[in-house]
Amino acid sequence: MPAETIAPTQPPITKKEILGWCMYDVADSAFTTVIVTALFAPYYAKIVVQDPGRADFLWGLAASISEVFVAILAPILGAIADFSGSRKKFLGICATTIILFTASLWFVGPGAVTLGLTLYIIANIGFAGGGVFIDSFLPGISNEQNVGKISGMKWAFGYTSGLICMVLISIVFGLADNIVSNPSAEQLSKARLIPVVVAVYYAIAVIPTFLFLRERSVPQQLPPGETYLTVGFKQLFHTLKNIGRYRELVKLLIAFLVYNDGVVTVIYFAALFATTTIGFTGEDIAMLFILMNVVAAIGAFSFGWIADRIGQKNTIYISLVIWIIAVVIAYLSYTKTTFYIAAVFVALGMGATQSVTRSLLALFTPKENAAEFFGFLGIAGKALAFLGPLVFGAISSATGSQRPAILSIGVFFVVGIILLSFVNEKAGKEAAKIPVLNQ
Length: 439
Description:
The protein is mainly alpha-helical. It has helices at residues 15-38, 40-49, 52-84, 87-103, 113-135, 138-141, 147-172, 177-180, 185-191, 194-205, 207-212, 228-241, 247-278, 282-310, 312-332, 336-364, 370-382, 387-399, 403-408, 410-420, 425-431.
């Protein structure tokens, strides 16, 4: 009996449902753009920790802890979600976690290093876990002809949303400069509103997802004496025993494991590099990420369209070359203008790599096991995600410069290209037609 069944009586996929799926990224990107990358990271370094070297290490440590936690839990929770037909419920738990713990970052003021780290780790666990469950809906709402377009549309929506949230905070609320300067008590109070604004924005933007996105998986009846937890573990072990059937998917996950570490590291440290090494002000950071989100939105949609025509694998190759160019330019940057150029390449690579990788995984994934298999993507995305941030932090701390640290990240993209060359795209799509059955 399959781990889940797509009910034949369910209505066809509608544009409204696809919109609901895309809207989760509208909410999610407010968190990743403002909290993870652009504004809260410099706030934590300059105002909370007040020591750039230590802040780099702690920010990398926080990222690593949350990513490893999700990597451990994602596959088993995915297997449970598939069997119980409850992907949407798990997604709701993740969204609630993000909203509550992001808002709680309001309590983090100067010197609250441990509190800030703890709250951020929990919020980031919700963010990373939500990514696993929302992506698991993609195989069920797409096909080989439009998966790149749909995935690219979601990422484009997300980057546009990140831009809107940045504008809302940086211009309307005038908070950007208060993060990297010495704020007065009044300015500090305004700066601490950043996570609250993000939490409210997230809560509003995510509503269409839960209104329009259908739970198309059908819950199965628990066998006598079993719980969802025991069934989930058994299904996971059964899948691992039969994983050889999906060897192309495994190869893709290994390649993604490496090159995504480079992507994650650049995202985590972009704002810190810009402020510490290049000398960006809060206003510069706001303009930088407005530019990046515009370019990333265009890149995600464009490369999704390209992937449907030249193939996902070839498109990922192009995106990884763009990443290599980006880190080299960043290493050589001594002016704001040059770093803006590097940021354009980062944005193009970011928009393309993440959306197209997920569309290729969707084509390699049996619909009946989507949450479980995207849980493996969670492992691939998180298992080595601790390494890049720690390498960056360690090199930055040891050399007293972020330049060699950012250049070292290029190695992850080079190795990713080599590993991706072993993936047979056609064979992977054929294997996805056969679900992993329960024992």
